[in-house]
Amino acid sequence: MKHFDALDKLLDALPLENGLSISFHHHLRDGDGVINPVLRALKKRDIKDMHLYVSSIFPSYKAIKELMESGHIKDITTNYMNGPVAQAISQNGLKGTLKMQSHGGRARAFIEGENKVDIAFIAAPAVSRQGDITGAVGKNSFGSIGYACEDARHASLKVAITDTFRDDFTPQIKGELVDYVLEVDSIGDVARMASGTLKITKDPLGLKIARETMQFLTAIKAIKQDVSFQSGAGGVSLSITKMFNDYLKRHALQASFYSGGITGVHVDALEKGLVRDLYDVQCFDRAAAKSLFVNAHHHFMCASDYANPNNEKRIIKALDIVILGASEIDLDFNVNVTTDSYNTLIGGSGGHSDTAEDAKLSIIVSPLLRARTVLIKDRVNTITTQGRFVDVLITERGIAINPLRTDLIEAIKGSDLNVMSIEELQKKAYNLTGIPKSKNHKLSAIGIVENRHGDAQDTLYKKE
Amino acid sequence: MDKPIMTGSLESSDCLITLYETDTPIIEVDTIVHDAFHDHILHLIKDVLKHYDLEHLSVRIQDKGALDYAIKARLKAAIEIYEDDSNG
Amino acid sequence: MQIKDVLLNEEKKAVKTFLNHFNLVYEDDIDLTLVLWEEDTLVATVSAAKNIVKCVAIHENFQGKGLLNHLMSTLIKRLNQRGHTHLFLYTQPEHVALFEMLGFKKIVESMNLSFMEMGGNIETALNELREAHELTKRPKGAVIINANPLTNGHLHLIREAKKHHDHLLVFVVSEDRSFFPFDARFKIIEESLQDVEGITILPTKDYLVSYATFPKYFLKHESTIKKEHALIDVLVFKQYYMKIFNITDRYVGDEPYSPMTNTYNKTMKQYLNGDLHIIERKSIEDTPISASTVRKLLKHQSVDAVSKYVPKATMRFLQSPQGEAIIEEIRHREKRH
């Protein structure tokens, strides 16, 4: 293992050539200080037609846009994106192709050799003398480094980039995998890792949806001793997690585990004994990052152990309930969280399609109306998650159950839940907004959505 | 009317209406749901103006996804201010 | 949450400190500032100088909740009360989407700056102007002058330009920030050119603004500000005026002693290339004739001292009661243009 103290010296030592494929993780989110400088240095060396594998793209990753425009980045494979880079891709496409994977699908594709990476650049909060890596300590400790594990195992060359050297930690990534260590002043600003949306919602509409969700879960008697549960970091999801915690407490129950992206609300449940274990692939805030270091039952996991469909021991195989969002849903329950209705990229699967497919119960929570736009389309613009894996839709104006889940339809019989068919729910929305005029789109393809098993599931188009 | 009359706001699910006088009346519809509802909103505004016999007035609407009730209410409020001004 | 006007000095200080976090400077010409307070926290602020919206900022923890829409709606209605229905805004390109959400439309954009408007549309305004003057589709030359006041130097530039074109457009800067008001400037030009065939005199409308109005609050260096101002002006001219009026050539006077005009002309040359012609400034006894020379003479000498530099119509105006009042003002104010 070789040490370098300057990015340029490291790059001098690396085999750089046109068509290079490189990878990064997104754990620091908007606080990342590695992606931009590395990409700009590669641009300066005029390495053309690169293939960028980055687990997610956040608004501050502006160098990606610069290198796309200058022809240095040709292809991008990622799981999620928003902000200026997403807008630029939606507008102009790439020189090559955009591939949107899921978190589990990305891990699988690394292991099975479909994602072929020459050099993995891994922002590492702490590195030991042996090259061991952890995200749990260091001045920019972001907690779990789960999305860099497969990069570290399968890229041809692995570079750990760090601002902290320590030897007193349990490695998340083993030093034997690391080829080079680059010491920098700072790998970013961990204070900016949590986005502003990480707050329990105060919006009455969001709270209503959260309460309806709890009523639904209670009606079907889903919240039992040893239940396992996952929800995201959106405002409504967080409220549901909070209400879920309160329910466990009131009924003296303990959940077996919470999984996925972890926040302070999840940690709170662990510390109060409401859940036995947290399985953490990424920390959404610093409270989670701290807990991972302190709490013995807060476990780090790699993306493959979280959601790789070909890993029999994946955590979400045992998941009972998952709460997910939607930008669009259609009459077949297909969900879109990748684009808006005008083809602009606004997100991506992340763990959406992985957990929907694996969990015993997948619930979509979303407002039925966002201003005058109705959530339920005849057909979603992009299929992120297939309808056959989506069980229930809960909105502020009613609940729709996937007709495939006859057991659930049976279970809510006799309850006073406001359940109707998804067609009826759509009609209810149209009664308020009027029926939208549909427009014929001129389409030009810019990439694909790949499902977690590696099959092309949908096509991505340029923005009109 | 010496100044255009403005009602409503640019907040989500609301609209900002500007009612004003010009030599030839125009109705400008700027909406976030352009593809789906532009023509519908244009007709809605024409209908309200016609109802009040005020088709000589111009209207600009900056719509943030307001439902018909909200658009009508904002426009009617502007018209009431206009009529108060004209009578006072 | 409560929207308040900023009136007291200590409130202004709070706004200034808040803007500093965003690397924004509170500009001197602001005449309306609104602030959104949540108890003791300053959540967001918007300002305006006449019809230009400025210094828009929102606290990081309160973003994405539509609060700016709330504040901007109030500002728009307040400006409407003051008679400003056509609003302008300068911002960085990365914030264009945000301001589009707030109802603004982009006019032009450079690398560092976007120029936006609301309550008006540049294409509609210029097309109306074209139709009002019954201008044909034939190719034309153009001169843009402020004429504060009109000098023989301006007339020389116009005559030189006219030599190359059947039809010349003379645009007079509409913005009223000069000693000589727009109506007076326009009238003097009309009188001075009434005998010349094939010239149409037009207002620039609100789209070509003076450096004084151009906001400087988010650009660091003065040289950048000057360049950006010129660039936006040139882009507006090229993308709208040239297209809508079918202008093939633009003529400007050279200005050997003004670094400001030099920057402007240099930027213009870059973007208009062969379509731009720089005409040598007319001199009398080695003194180039410019409006600023004339104003300087008016400040320090008698009215008669300027007679050899300006046409009769300007002289007549200077000797009128309105003209005398303006000369008084020039003598008593240090204001530079």
Task: Describe the secondary structure blueprint for this structure.
The complex is a heterotrimer of chains A (464), B (88) and C (337).
Chain A: E1 2-4, H1 7-13, E2 21-24, H2 35-44, E3 50-54, H3 62-69, E4 73-78, H4 84-92, E5 98-100, H5 103-111, E6 119-124, E7 126-127, E8 133-134, H6 149-154, E9 157-162, E10 180-183, H7 204-219, E11 228-231, H8 235-250, E12 255-262, H9 264-271, E13 275-283, H10 286-294, E14 298-300, H11 303-307, E15 321-324, E16 328-330, E17 335-336, H12 352-358, E18 361-365, E19 369-370, E20 373-374, E21 376-377, E22 392-395, E23 398-401, H13 406-411, E24 419-420, H14 422-433, E25 445-450, E26 456-461
Parallel strand pairs in A: 1-10, 2-3, 2-6, 3-4, 4-5, 5-25, 6-9, 9-10, 11-12, 11-15, 12-13, 13-14, 15-18, 16-21, 18-22, 23-24
Antiparallel strand pairs in A: 7-8, 16-17, 19-20, 22-23, 25-26
Chain B: E1 5-8, E2 15-21, E3 27-31, H1 34-51, E4 57-63, H2 68-87
Chain C: E1 2-5, H1 9-21, E2 32-38, E3 41-49, E4 52-58, H2 67-81, E5 87-91, H3 96-101, E6 105-109, E7 114-118, H4 122-132, E8 140-145, H5 152-162, E9 168-172, H6 182-193, E10 199-203, H7 222-245, E11 247-253, H8 259-272, E12 276-279, E13 283-284, E14 287-288, H9 291-300, H10 312-319, H11 321-332
Parallel strand pairs in C: 4-5, 8-9, 8-11, 9-10, 11-12
Antiparallel strand pairs in C: 1-2, 2-3, 3-4, 5-7, 6-7, 13-14
Helix pairs in contact in C: 4-7, 6-10, 7-8, 9-11, 10-11
Fold and architecture overview:
- Chain A has 14 helices and 26 strands.
- With 464 residues, chain A is α/β, with parallel strands linked by helices.
- In chain A, strands 1-10-9-6-2-3-4-5-25-26 form a ten-stranded mixed β-sheet. A nine-stranded mixed β-sheet of chain A has the order 14-13-12-11-15-18-22-23-24, with helices on both faces.
- Chain B has one domain (5-78).
- Chain B is 43% helix and 26% strand.
- Chain B is built from two helices and four strands.
- Chain B has a four-stranded mixed β-sheet, with helices on one face.
- The relative contact order of chain B is 0.28.
- With 337 residues, chain C is of the alpha/beta class.
- Helix content of chain C is 40%, strand content 22%.
- Chain C is built from eleven helices and 14 strands.
- In chain C, strand 6 (105-109) and strand 7 form a beta hairpin.
- The radius of gyration of chain C is 22 Å and the shape is globular.
- The model of chain C has no long low-confidence stretch (mean pLDDT 89).
